[in-house]
Amino acid sequence: MSDRHDDVATRAAEILAALGGVTNIVEIEPCTTRLRSEVHDPAAVDVKALRAAGAHGVMISGRVVQVVMGPEVDVIASDLEDLL
Amino acid sequence: MAGQGLKYVKVRDHLRSLVTHELAVGDPIPSERILCEQFGVSRMTVRQAVDALVVEGLLVREQGRGTFVAPIKVDLEVRLSSFDEEMQRRGMTPSSKVLASEVVDAAPDVADALELLPGERVFSLYRVRLADGEPMAVEQSWLPMRLVPGLLDEGVPESLYAELRRRGLEPDWGEDVVAAAEADGEDAALLGIEPGRAVLRLTRRTFAGQVATVYSRSVYRADRYVLWVPLRRPQRPLTPRTTGPRTTKDER
Known about the structure:
With about 80 residues, chain A is α+β, with helices and mostly antiparallel strands.
């Protein structure tokens, strides 16, 4: 259990870094299977790093970045809350 | 003109509530003459209202016989269950006609969806899905070969999800993308509808935990399906506690 939790915590940190770090985040909303985030600068988003952190897809439209994570988004979101 | 437009809407909405609340599937609707008298409108206005509901799929017109209440549309809930399970839940008998089942190299889009390298081997299925013997959808699906070895050894499984469950790969989440489209010639022929009629194109990625298990593209008849989507309030978005060096205001 604790391994799994650490794994998710690490993943949350990786995702935040790949989204350009705390300073790039306007908001992040967990949405069933996706993390929908609004960022200041979409160019600062590292899609490859998001995939490496376990994302099953990344959709960028304007300043909205959607990261497909599966139902784990809720757990990741609660870890992200600690990091923001 | 505005008055005429409003009259047409009144007749149409009256017919719509008749269809949904008073008449049964296959019942004839009131005659043009009766509707003209009831609403004090021209035949043209009545026809326009009936046409709208024919196009919507609530009514069917039969040459020389009249206009009748169309079969009820199946609510296509975007949920992670198989076609078979959905039809059984509604008391319909599902069946499939297999048009092709083979092992192929994954095309780039299929490889991407299944998180494989292009050219990796995948099982490819092409099926017509039927309910009570009537074609409802055409479905192409792909599964990674190394994930489900021997999948087709004893023919195409009756239900892919059931077979995945048996192998400990129960699909537990996924994503659908649904688009409206017109049926092309091949889909129309398989579905028994006219080319150019409306269809729903559904693209689905299915996962078991972190493993992509099935990618499918389906075409559903729009005259038999409506899309049903549950809604709920979005969760509270997370925002950084401290404002970064760049603020949203500056950007906007």
